[in-house]
Design brief:
Number of domains: 2
Strand content: 5-15%
CATH superfamily of the largest domain: NAD(P)-binding Rossmann-like Domain
Number of strands: 7
Helix content: 40-55%
CATH topology of the largest domain: Rossmann fold
Structural class: alpha/beta
Radius of gyration: 18 Å
Strand order of the largest sheet: 3-2-1-4-5-6-7
Shape: globular
Oligomer: single chain
Order of helices and strands: EHEHEHEHEHEHHHE
Number of helices: 8
Largest sheet: 7 strands, parallel
CATH class of the largest domain: Alpha Beta
C-alpha cells in the first residue's frame, strides 16, 4: 500500500512514550500531544499534585512520582514503564530547572550542584535506562532531549543553566553516533523564550539582578527575537511529534531551535 508524503508527517499510532517532568508546562503539552495521536503515554514528575491534575484531564496517561536527579527514582520509573507500557519507543527527556541567577562569584555551590543534578545528571540516568528498551523497539525509536536556546548561546548571569543546556547538546550528538547503528535516533529541541509562569519567574529574577523593571526586561527579551514573540509549549510539542514521525526518519544528531530566532541572550 502506497504511503503519501502527508501520511509520513504523522507519528505511528500506538507509540510507547515516556515524558519526564511531564505534569506541567512543556512536558504536559508534549504528553497531551502524543496522547492525542494515539500514543500510550507515561509521565513522571516530582509534583504529585500536578500529576493528579494531568490524569484528571487525561485519565489514560499513566504516571510515576520521581525526583529525576535521583538514580533510584529513575529505576523505579522504568519498572513502572515496563509494567504499564511493556517497552518503549520514545523518550522525551524534558526535565530541567531554571537554576540560580547572578554573577558567577556570588553563586552558591549548592545551587550549581542542584542545577547540574537536575538538568544534566537526570538526562544520563534516563538515557542509560531507556537505551536498552529503545534498541528493542522496531517502531522508529527516538530519544528527544530538551535543551534550550541557552544551549547554543552564552547567557550572562545564568551560567549554571547555560552550562547544563550546552552539555545536553553534546550528550545528544554523542548518543546519535553511538545509537545510530542500532536504528535509534537522538535529537535535541532548543526552546527559546516560552510563554508561561516559569519564564515570568526567570524574567523577574533577571530584572532584579539587573536593577530594572520587569516590563523593561520583558521588552529586552522580545527585542532579541527576530519574530518579536515568544514561543508556546505547543510549538515545542509539535516539533517533538515531527521528530517521531516517519518524515524525520533520517534526522538524528541535531539540535533544533524552536525560538523565533533568538539573536543573542
Amino acid at each position: 500500500m502506497h504511503t503519501s508524503l502527508i501520511d509520513t508527517l504523522r507519528p505511528t499510532p500506538g507509540l510507547r512514550v515516556l515524558v519526564t517532568a511531564g505534569a506541567s508546562g512543556i512536558g504536559a503539552a508534549v504528553a497531551h500531544a502524543f496522547r492525542e495521536i494515539g500514543s500510550h503515554v507515561h509521565v513522571c514528575d516530582i509534583d504529585r499534585a500536578a500529576l493528579d491534575r494531568l490524569t484528571a484531564e487525561t485519565p489514560k496517561i499513566t504516571t510515576s512520582v520521581a525526583d529525576a536527579s535521583v538514580a533510584k527514582d529513575v529505576e523505579t520509573v522504568f519498572a513502572d514503564v515496563r509494567n504499564t507500557l511493556g517497552g518503549l519507543d520514545v523518550l522525551v527527556n524534558n526535565v530541567g530547572i531554571a537554576g540560580p541567577t547572578g554573577p558567577v562569584e556570588e553563586l552558591q555551590r549548592g545551587d550549581w550542584e542542584r542545577t547540574v543534578d537536575v538538568n544534566l545528571n537526570s538526562h544520563f540516568y534516563f538515557a542509560s535506562q531507556a537505551v536498552p528498551l529503545l534498541k528493542e523497539s522496531t517502531r522508529n525509536p527516538c530519544l528527544i532531549a530538551m535543551s534550550s536556546v541557552a544551549g547554543r548561546l552564552g547567557y550572562a548571569l545564568r551560567t549554571p543553566y547555560a552550562s547544563t543546556k550546552w552539555a545536553i547538546v553534546g550528550l545528544t550528538k554523542s548518543l546519535a553516533i553511538e545509537l545510530g547503528p542500532h536504528g535509534v535516533r537522538v535529537n535535541a529541541i532548543l526552546p527559546g523564550t516560552v510563554e508561561g509562569e516559569r519564564m515570568d519567574g526567570v524574567i523577574g529574577a533577571r530584572a532584579a539582578a539587573a536593577g530594572v523593571s520587569v516590563d523593561a526586561m520583558r521588552a529586552e527579551y522580545l527585542n532579541k527575537i527576530s519574530l518579536r514573540r515568544m514561543v508556546t509549549a505547543d510549538d515545542i510539542a509539535a516539533t517533538a511529534l515531527f521528530l517521531c514521525s516517519p518524515a524525520a526518519r533520517n534526522i538524528t544528531g541535531q539540535a533544533i531551535s524552536v525560538d523565533g530566532n533568538v539573536e543573542y541572550l
